[in-house]
Design brief:
Blueprint (H helix, E strand, L loop, with lengths): L2 E2 L6 E2 L5 E2 L11 E4 L2 E4 L5 E7 L13 H13 L4 E5 L12 H18 L3 E5 L3 H10 L3 E3 L6 H10 L3 E4 L11 H18 L7 E4 L8 H9 L1 H5 L6 E2 L5 H7 L7 H13 L4 E4 L2 H15 L7
Parallel strand pairs: 6-7, 6-13, 7-8, 8-9, 9-10, 10-11, 12-13
Antiparallel strand pairs: 1-2, 2-3, 4-5
Length: 302
């Protein structure tokens, strides 16, 4: 087994010796162990399945019955999802903020029951550090926040040692310079501050925030530039599933955007994206597996 050392292009073998890579030798990326799972960034793209415990999800798949949510989460695991993303607050345009107490009432029973019945990796889609800390006690593993860089979020991630997502978002759609440059600058600066605050680099996941404070042409520009964001050196996640930009391009309603989503997922895999956040699990697992096989030559060894 080969390990990537902190020094770029230096391989540390199992006996502790260091050397330069041989010609054509694959360097395996860093590993995060979560329960019985190992996420190795760069080996393949992981599928994050969305479970909305809300009555007002933009995608029309929101649920309020916790047992139904658990059943859907278990089905997603059976269909090949690597991560289950549970959220109790809609982030659709024009949504009304939810009190943290309401969020907890929605998601904690789902997390607790899912954890009782499965060792699945669970992420929590919340902007509230308070909600995430409580969710960790119930069995959650990853902090997926759409709030962008906030010191309270970073502190919660550092205190729990959990991986967390830094997503670019803003309340308006005006950019003083190129949108890609603005997003990259924001993500790079935020990641650096998170490391300075005590977060482990390989547990910081960057998300360009497709659809958050961005017009359709902004989103397309970001999707065309995923390789630039990936070049920052952090795990990268995208969430394009069923979003309005796909509807603008195709003219299709939200429930008919599975093929449009598939196109962005395949392009994301080709750009080296580490996690894709999706609704249509079975279909997107197939898209990811085939794309990975072509792009990375993944053999399913891990």
């Amino acid at each position: 087994m080969l390990h990537l050392n902190a020094e770029p292009n230096i391989i540390k073998d199992d006996d502790g010796s260091c050397r330069l890579p041989e010609s054509g030798e694959e360097i395996l990326g860093p590993v995060i162990s979560i329960r019985n799972h190992r996420l190795r960034w760069g080996l393949r793209t992981y599928v994050m399945a969305v479970i909305n415990v809300t009555p007002d999800s933009f995608s029309g798949d929101g649920l309020t019955d916790y047992s139904t949510c658990v059943d859907r989460a278990l089905q997603a695991v059976d269909e090949g999802a690597d991560i289950i993303d549970i959220g109790g607050e809609s982030t659709r345009p024009g949504h009304m903020p939810v009190d943290p107490k309401v969020e907890l009432e929605r998601i904690l029973p789902v997390i607790a029951e899912l954890r009782r019945r499965s060792d699945a990796v669970i992420s929590v889609d919340t902007r509230s550090p308070e909600v995430f800390r409580e969710a960790v006690h119930a069995g959650a593993d990853i902090f997926n926040s759409v709030a962008g860089f906030e010191i309270a979020i970073v502190e919660a991630a550092a205190d729990t040692g959990c991986p967390f997502v830094i997503m670019h978002q803003q309340s308006h759609t005006t950019y003083e310079t190129d949108v890609v440059d603005c997003v990259i600058d924001y993500l790079e600066t935020s990641a650096r501050k998170a490391i300075e605050a005590g977060c482990e680099k390989n547990r910081i996941i960057l998300d360009p925030g497709i659809g958050f404070g961005k017009l359709p042409h902004h989103n397309v520009a970001l999707l065309r530039s995923l390789n630039r964001i990936k070049a920052l050196g952090f795990p990268l996640m995208i969430g394009t599933s069923r979003k309005s930009t796909l509807g603008k391009i195709t003219g299709r309603p939200v429930e008919q955007r599975v093929f449009a989503t598939a196109a962005t997922v395949a392009l994301g895999v080709a750009a080296g994206v580490d996690i894709v956040r999706i609704h249509d699990v079975s279909a997107m697992v197939d898209v990811v597996r085939v794309s990975d096989a072509v792009v990375r030559g993944w053999t399913g060894a891990e």
